[in-house]
Each structure stands twice: as structure tokens, then as C-alpha cells.
Amino acid sequence: MSYDFLMSSALRIAQGKFGRVALLDMNRPLVRHAHPHCHVLLKVEGADTQFSVRDDLVPLTNESAVLVNAWEPHAYAHDPRRPPTIILALYIEPRWLAEFRPNWTASGRPGFFAQATGAITPRIRALTDDMARAMVTEPAAQTLHETFLSDLMIAVIERFTPWRETAVSLRNLARGPSVDHRIRTVAAQIDADPGAIRQIDDLIAATHVSRAQFFRLFEASMGVSPRVYLNAARLERAVQAVSGSEAHLSAISESLGFSVPAHFSRFFHDHAGSSPSGFRAVTRKPV
């Protein structure tokens, strides 16, 4: 049986200084993309499923989590023969994690999670269910959400990373991958106004290197392709505008460089798992 007649949607969105938590009812694939945050995916109910993280397919089940480092390319690899899956997706700000332990700012750099999947503990399972239930039944209870999220992220980090006991070494940071100064300038330009970037070739021209060399330099410096980086910047700007402003969706679409609103809607759905209007509706619950 095919379930293609169903559409993926956001059931609830919680936002705060912690970043973003999305409760998603997923029935369609997501395109290959990346985020500037560490990203944790936990199954809530429905069919077992899988994600592609870099070049590996990893399972998302009742017993396992998917763990994605900042700027690590990944995609949702949905099987259309399976029923939908409700997924708790965490996009966590490193500065918020640093309030628990200063060295947890490392969550914003590659390699925070050593593996893309791992077996969860009964405590992680229970906290996942509690968080999802609270988002549905008490959508305005921001303090409760943050309490559950704090406990959940501490449990995840203690389970899946060595950073609880390991200090961040300045020597190791200094020896980490360097960013070419031309690529740093291009990345800053993208971050400042992703909607102003119409073509990747416009960025290449400013660096005075060949197209092939530009792509090599960019991926070596940033860990992702220029297109994935630009799309990540566009998505974060779109999420902020959709959930945090009253702007019409067509105006947001135009500000982000989309020629028609339908293209923006498809982009948003393919990256965030929900239409922009649906995302806005479930982010704004009455207090």
C-alpha cells in the first residue's frame, strides 16, 4: 500500500533561546540539507524509518536515535510503502547548551557526535514521549517544554558524546580546519542576506578563482557545498520570518529571492517538513 496521498506536516513547533523543537508528522522525503546546529531526531510513534547522514543510511526506531552534527549533510529517506512517522526533531543552539557545561559549545562544530546513530536509554525514551506529549497538550507551556528539553539534551549528550568529561583544548581548536579568507567573506555575505544571492556564480566571481576551485575551497572550509550552505541560511531566515513576524508569505518569499511564492513553499516543505502556513499555524498557539 502507498501512503503518497498524505502530506508531511508540523504538529507543533517550540522555539526559544534553546533553538527549535519540531514535532513532525513525516510522510515525504526531505532533500539533502544541513543546519548550523547539532540536530537530534527521535521517533515518537508510527513506522520505523531512516535518514541519510552524509553517505550512510541510519535507522530511526523506538530504540535508536539519529544524531547529526552541525553542517553535516543529511536527508529524510522515507519509504512510501510505510505509514507516516511522528518525529521529534531538535535543533539546539550551542550557547544554550553552554549554560549546562561551557565545553558543550562544541555542539556547534563538526564531530560532536562520533556516530550518526545510537541505541537510546529508557530515560531518553521516556523524556522524548514526555516532551512530545507536552507540546501537543500544553502548547503554550514554554517553561515546561524547556525543562523537558534540558533533561532530554543532557541525557542525549551524556549517552552519545565524550564531552561531559573532556575539556575543549585550545590547541585542538587551533589545529582544526582553517577557513580560506575568500570563503569566509563569501559565507559572511550569504549569512548577511541570503535572499540577495541569485546565483552561485555571482559568489564565485568575487573570489577570482575557477568554479572548480571555488567548490573545492568552499566544501573544505565549510564542510558543505555552497548550495547547501545558502539553502541553510535561507531556511533559518525563513523560519524566523514565518514564525516570528506577521509578514505575508509572498513578501517573505520575495525577500529570500524566490521568483514565485509556490517555489518558496516547496523549498520550505522540502527542508522543514511542513508548508510555511502550517509551520506558522502550529508555532502560534494562544497563551
From TrEMBL:
InterPro entries associated with the record: AraC-bd, AraC_XylS_family_regulators, Homeodomain-like_sf, HTH-like, HTH_AraC
Organism: Aureimonas jatrophae
Gene Ontology molecular function, alphabetical: DNA-binding transcription factor activity; sequence-specific DNA binding
Record has Transcription regulation as a keyword: yes
Protein name in the entry: AraC-type DNA-binding protein
Annotated ranges, domain HTH araC/xylS-type: 184-282
SMART domains assigned to the protein according to its UniProt record, in alphabetical order: HTH_ARAC (SM00342)
Protein origin, superkingdom: Bacteria
UniProt key word Transcription: yes
Keywords attached to this entry: DNA-binding, Transcription, Transcription regulation
PROSITE patterns the UniProt entry points to: HTH_ARAC_FAMILY_2
